[in-house]
Design brief:
Number of helices: 6
Shape: elongated
Radius of gyration: 18 Å
CATH architecture of the largest domain: Orthogonal Bundle
Order of helices and strands: HHHEEHHH
Number of domains: 2
CATH superfamily of the largest domain: Winged helix-like DNA-binding domain superfamily/Winged helix DNA-binding domain
Helix content: 55-70%
Mean pLDDT: 92
CATH class of the largest domain: Mainly Alpha
Low-confidence stretches: none
Strand order of the largest sheet: 1-2
Largest sheet: 2 strands, antiparallel
CATH topology of the largest domain: Arc Repressor Mutant, subunit A
Number of strands: 2
Length: about 120
């Protein structure tokens, strides 16, 4: 995900795939990488400071969950790419020309709703 490091992205993938909140040890167990508990704890703390995750104290440990969904995070990343591109119109036009049939259909469905607002 744009704006996140490799390990931060992996942790977010775990949280987005979870059915509820997770403790550090839960995340560590699902990462499938030989990492120290404190490494994952630090990454989750950093993600919390950056606004990517919410946390709630449960006894002596925090339980974490995503602050935004995967689709919203991707849309925010796209918005950031557009705003820093220097030519957002050109980027959008290039994307539209290179979009797959499925992406084109999704855009067609979404655009009429946007115009009504």
């Amino acid at each position: 995900m744009h704006g996140l490091g490799e390990l931060e992205s992996a942790v977010m993938d775990v949280l987005w795939g979870a059915s509820g909140t997770m403790k550090v040890r839960d995340v560590l167990g699902r990462l499938g990488k030989p990492l120290a508990y404190t490494t994952v704890m630090t990454v989750l703390d950093n993600l919390h400071r950056k606004g990517w995750v919410q946390r709630e104290l449960d006894g002596k440990a925090y339980r974490y969950e995503p602050a935004v969904g995967r689709a919203e995070a991707a849309a925010n990343a796209l918005r950031q790419v557009l705003s820093t591109s220097g030519d957002p119109e050109g980027v959008l036009l290039h994307f539209a020309r290179s979009a797959s049939e499925r992406e084109t259909e999704l855009l067609r469905k979404a655009l009429p709703r946007k115009r009504r607002r």
